[in-house]
Specification:
CATH architecture of the largest domain: 3-Layer(aba) Sandwich
Strand content: 15-25%
Number of domains: 2
Number of helices: 15
Distance between the termini: 31 Å
Number of strands: 18
Bound molecules: adenosine-5'-diphosphate
CATH superfamily of the largest domain: Putative sugar-binding, N-terminal domain
Radius of gyration: 22 Å
Length: about 425
């Protein structure tokens, strides 16, 4: 194992894993810290935690447990992955976790680079931009859990750590990997422990990865991941790069489950319904205790022989509001997630082995119900969403799509990729 990654949430982990596979690394994503060593031979592992907004002490504890497991696997470099909008509070958890990992690895320097130019996240003079506006002027200023009201990442990070935070300006990045290394040495001499790094383009991220090749620890969004993979490729260490994204076909039926109500998902459901069988789940009937899941399974079983089916709770904002007024947002969400998870279990029992799941929370509920602990990451379907395969005696192919990801024909496109 060349690279060990610790991600502070599930879909962020998939995003990074997808990036590493694109760069030619055979990659597995685990859900939490596994109890046993990995049986597969891979180049990188991403441990998905749910540590973004929990208490800093707990986030540190979980991250150190992940580090311990990754080091047992023999990995040479550690990558702490957080969101490209640097989602955190003044108490953490990016600062405390970075600090604890540095301590455990015995290193006195790391970088912090959430930049992801592909998605409009760039850093200049330490200020993070989302598209054309500062982070603090973007939608992130109103985030319910991690409102980001300061775009200056040096200041944001310094508030979370006792170690000295510095800046590697664009000037050093633009001059290439050697200049970057020189700047790192100068900052180190000045006692800087964590340096925020400016980055405006994918090319910058590749240079940053190259300049940081020898650091035992990197902290970043998913963007730097591609460069890290290319470092290993350049050094001739990725002998399976050509087949890193290849997953064996899983024979069995296919189905789509959707619990996301985002704009993109509403469009994807509408697109599917134009030509393929779909069944809608009514949260109010669930709340009334009716046998909605059983009905859905009977409906699906009668159709699976003829091709894939969609079962969805997806609704437009007006409909969601009406349901939430009746049941409360939390209860409605929970009921739908549980029902879709139960349907997923039933579908797998009925022989479904290829599943597309729409919705971040929905995907979490389904993966949990199916008892999946680790996923091998395959080919990208749309940016940020790869096919994956559970690592089990009886593997299941899963495409886990959160919120606003994917083109209107995403469901059809994903399933078409399974055809020989
Ligand atoms: P996304 O990735 O788009 O945010 P999630 O699955 O994370 O999707 O979140 C959507 C939430 O909305 C889930 O908790 C889901 O159970 C809930 N939900 C789905 N359909 C409905 C509906 N018709 N009414 C109310 N809540 C719903």
């Amino acid at each position: 194992m060349l690279l060990g990654c610790i991600a502070d949430d599930f879909t962020g982990a998939t995003d990074l894993a997808n990036m590493l596979v694109r760069g030619g690394m055979r990659t597995v994503q685990t859900i939490g810290v596994p109890a046993v060593p990995l049986a597969q031979e891979v180049d990188a592992v991403v441990v998905a935690l749910k540590s973004r907004t929990i208490a800093a002490r707990e986030a540190v504890e979980q991250s150190l447990a992940a580090l311990g497991w990754l080091r047992q696997g023999g990995c040479q470099q550690i990558y702490f992955k957080y969101c490209s909008t640097f989602d955190s509070t003044p108490k953490g958890n990016i600062g405390p976790v970075s600090e604890a990992l540095m301590e455990a690895l015995g290193t006195d320097f790391t970088i912090a680079c959430p930049a992801f130019p592909e998605a409009g996240r760039t850093i200049c003079r330490g200020y993070l931009f989302v598209g054309d506006v500062l982070l603090s002027e973007s939608g992130m200023k109103d985030h319910p859990l991690t409102p980001m009201t300061d775009a200056n990442l040096v200041r944001v990070l310094q508030a979370q750590t006792l170690r000295k935070v510095g800046l590697i300006r664009y000037d050093a990045v633009a001059h290439g990997a050697a200049a970057l290394r020189g700047r790192i040495e100068a900052l180190r001499r000045d006692g800087v422990a964590i340096a925020v790094v400016d980055a405006l383009s994918d090319q910058d991220l590749l240079l940053i990865a190259q300049g940081c090749e020898d650091l035992p620890l990197l902290t970043a969004g998913s963007g730097v991941g591609l460069g890290i993979a290319l470092n290993h490729r350049r050094a001739g260490r990725l002998t399976h790069a050509a087949t890193a994204a290849a997953l064996p076909r899983v024979p069995g039926y296919a189905a789509v489950l959707s619990g996301s109500c985002s704009v993109a998902t509403n469009g994807q459901v509408a697109h599917w319904r134009q030509s393929k069988p779909a069944l809608r789940i009514d949260p109010l009937r669930l709340a009334a205790g009716q046998a909605v899941a059983e009905e859905a399974l009977n409906w699906a079983q009668a159709r699976l022989d003829a091709g894939p089916v969609l079962i969805y709770a997806t609704a437009n904002p007006r409909e969601v509001q009406a349901v939430q007024n009746e049941l409360g947002a939390e209860r409605a969400g929970h009921l739908v997630e549980q029902a879709l998870a139960q349907i997923a279990e039933g579908l797998v029992q009925a022989g479904v082995r290829n599943l597309v799941i729409a919705g971040g929370e929905t995907a979490g509920a389904v993966v949990g119900a199916l008892g999946i602990r680790a996923l091998r990451i395959g080919r990208q379907i749309d940016p940020g969403v790869p096919w994956t395969q559970s690592i089990d005696d009886e593997p299941i192919a899963l495409a886990l799509k959160s919120g606003n990801f994917g083109s209107p024909d995403f469901f059809v496109k994903a399933l078409a990729q399974l055809e020989p």
